[in-house]
UniProtKB/TrEMBL annotation:
Family classification: Belongs to the PRAME family. LRRC14 subfamily.
Species per Swiss-Prot/TrEMBL record: Grallaria varia (variegated antpitta)
InterPro entries: LRR_dom_sf, LRRC14/PRAME
One annotated Gene Ontology cellular component of this protein: cytoplasm
Keywords: Leucine-rich repeat, Repeat
Protein name according to UniProt: Leucine-rich repeat-containing protein 14B
Residue ranges the record marks as coiled coil: none
SUPFAM superfamilies xref list: RNI-like
Record bears the keyword Repeat: yes
Amino acid sequence: RGTMKSLRFLSAEAFVSNAEFARKSLDAVVHNLFPLLFKASYLLEQGEVIHDLVENWPLVDFNMGKLLGPTVDYQEDLSHRTCSVCLESCLTGLRDYVLNHSSPYMKRLKVVDLTGIKDVEVQFCECKKTMGRWARTQLLSKLCVELLVYLQQAQCNPGTFEISIDVLIDLFVTERNYDLVMHALLKKCHCPLKICCVAFRSDNLTLQKFFYIIKLTDPSLLRKLEIVHNVHLEMEHLEILFNSIHFPLLMSLTLPARTFNVQRFTATDEQMLTNIGEKMGEMTQLTELCLSFSILTGRIQKLLSPLKTPLKMLDVSNCSLNHADMAYLANSFHANHFESLDLSGHDIPELYPSTFFKLLSCSSSVLRSLTLEECNIQDTHVNMLILGLKTCQKLQEFKFVGNPMSSQALKHLFTFLCELPMLKNVEFPVPRDCYPIDITYPIDDASLCRFDHQKYESVADELNLILLQANREDVKASTPLFGSYDAAVQETNNELGAYLIKSFKETLEKFASSFNEMS
């Protein structure tokens, strides 16, 4: 990591380290030094200085990704630090920028871009308290509503109402913050801070509320739409969504599990699927698609062939694809463009080995991320896998948890993986020889942790030694038993758990009621 600091940056750190002095001296600071002071303040977690810098921001734009990213004065990227102290100071400073008594004509700020903030698993900020995407959505919405109330009640400078700042943000809405976000979006035209939703994620929300709030976000600006957990969107609802709302700039679409189920398709459903494919074809910017845990056997071509832009990311994990689906993917115009591919949950060696390797060969020049979890890749398949991966010289991430491979096969594979120059992250399975001899794959959740932990640790140490001896300390190798880190799930897991318990309770009550009626 490039952590060298220029003399300018060291001076900025010295300046902001005395918060009281820095805040008093801001009036004397030239405008082009504000970005430098902001990054220095963020690094040192000087919340009060951050607040005052934003409150008095003299420039036309405020882009968090650029301000915290690598700069000439300090190469370290701080955009993955979702420090609660810093981000709260930032957003309250933005509110106070509007209320600041300086002349509105002196206020030049027009665009605030919060989309460059990255939520990651390990935080380096000293306070250790993070503000994730959900909390940022909550706080910005709260500040917008409070700002409107204050402006209506107080005697403000008339020029304050002429302030208009677009705040670009990735919204994350659940049942718990729905009302607040909805009110902020409803009153958007009256508020000086105008929420501009660039990406939208929805979990734990009724369909009625989802349809209502998605229209309030101004879908014409939306670039990423994620409908993930506990939003019961099925194919007929998706058709209604695409027929009633246009997404001209949409680049990335994630649909919830079981959106499609071809096992119970009628002729009407087939036509519905065709219509959905055609609507997706009208989204000329669409390059990322996640359809995991839908049953799409034999229908991939119908869904994807209308697309006019090649996909760069495709997640069809656990979608029960057959040979025709894999053959379409390998021969489609998408194949040469896949940068990220997830084919987990398919028995690749048994069902379509040659077609898969053709697909891998086509995408090898651009492929950065490959996920093959629970694909029944065994020791006898490792040499062929290595042959397929040899050409994937840009691969940065390889995940293959849940495959029945021995510790010996893993060592052989790791020796090869050291040769991939761009590789940064590997997620590997617990070796088969660490489990009881009668274990069956795919392993159910109840048996997942029933392995010899001491033996696993010994194997993991050997694998890391292989990386170390090849001078590949830059590669992180791990075994996330229950799936990769998901910042959104981590942040809202209490709400998600409560929702699942409530759903389970309702199901039991319905069952008991039906049983009583039968009795």
